Amino acid sequence: MKNLRKTNPIKPLVIALNALLLGAAASSAQTTIIYDTFGGYDALPDHAPDLNLTGNPWSIAGDQTTWGTPGCINGVALFIGDTGGGISLQGYTLPSTTLTLSAGLYVNNIADDNANTRGMYLGYFRDLTLNTNISTVDFTGMLLDATDGTLNLLNNDSSGSSTVVSSRSYQGTWDKGQLHTLSYTIDTVSGSILSATLDSSNYMFAAISIFASTNLNYVGLGVSAPASGQYGYAANFLLTAEATPEPGTLALAALGGAGAWFCTRRKK
Fold first, then answer.
1. Which residues contact 55 (CB under 8 A, 6 or more apart)?
2. Which of 78, 79, 232, 264 has the fewest CB atoms in 10 Å of its CB?
3. What's the DSSP call for residue 264?
4. 95/99 Cα distance (integer angstroms)
5. Of 53, 63, 42, 6, which Cα lies nearest the Cα of 222?
6. For domain 30-244, is the CATH number 1.10.3720.10?
7. Whole-angstrom Cα distance, residue 232 to residue 79?
8. Residue 85: CB atoms within 10 Å
9. Residue 21: per-residue pLDDT
10. Selection from 197-201, 228-232, 256-260 with the highest mean pLDDT
11. How many C-beta atoms lie closer than 10 Å to residue 39's C-beta?
């Protein structure tokens, strides 16, 4: 005879609810704001990213008269001399205070320079400065040094100049001929870096409040190599935000947890 005490009609519903909540949480863990594979052949200002929730176009930093306009070459973005590009975040409401920025950077065609910090940079601009030989003016973020792979944290000061505030040596054997993947996460409330990864290795930076909202008007990247014939490539530019659960989702999760506990108690 069937044991009715061990049959709980609520349990299947609770299991289904928990599965639904877990699936919703997984699908909304991150919001992709900008994703650009730099496909096609066009100048960066004329190029449309694969996904761009801001609706704003690429704009250029640096002296285009001297170095030319950055452009897309079927899967990479080419930056020559001392030029950069950024997409405005102004007018767009960020879905979270936690932002992750990543891209592949190729620095093989940037000459070694032990006296200066030269390489590819990835981060945020307070403003994009045109007609200047220094595209990192008003820039806050990471610069990958082409000479030895040092990861430099740059901050723009009150005058707009960007200076190195912290550095980390490359972990492993540096090979500038390879494509290097850089990714880091910031908290826009504290202004600090939460985590940083270069070529699958983790890098720790002290809590330095430099990513203030006033420094995050544009997000972008570029090259710092002001010499003829020097350039850098970038690939797979990606900006994401960590989603904040809606109050209703949290309430349903709590309900599902309570139901699971109830089922366990009933079984006992």
1. 92
2. 264
3. H
4. 9
5. 63
6. no
7. 5
8. 28
9. 41
10. 197-201
11. 15
Residue (of 188, 121, 113) closest to 154 by Cα position: 121
Domain spans in the chain, listed from the N-terminal domain onward: 1-28+245-268, 30-244
List phi, psi (to 5°) of 29: -65, -35
Any idea which of 153-157, 176-180, 185-189 has the lowest mean pLDDT? 153-157
Query: What residue type is 171 in one-letter code?
Result: Q
Taking the alpha carbons at both ends of the chain, their separation in whole angstroms is 20
Q: Looking at the chain, list the stretches that DSSP marks H as alpha helix, in order from N- to C-terminal side.
A: 11-27, 64-67, 247-267
What is the Cα–Cα distance from 180 to 106, expressed in whole angstroms? 6
**Could you tell me how far CA 205 lies from the centroid of its own chain?**
16
Nearest residue to 109 via CA among 263, 224, 238: 224
Strands, E assignment, the chain: 30-36, 41-43, 51-52, 58-62, 71-73, 77-80, 83-88, 98-106, 119-125, 139-145, 151-156, 162-168, 180-187, 193-198, 201-203, 218-224, 231-242
User: What's residue 159's pLDDT?
Assistant: 64
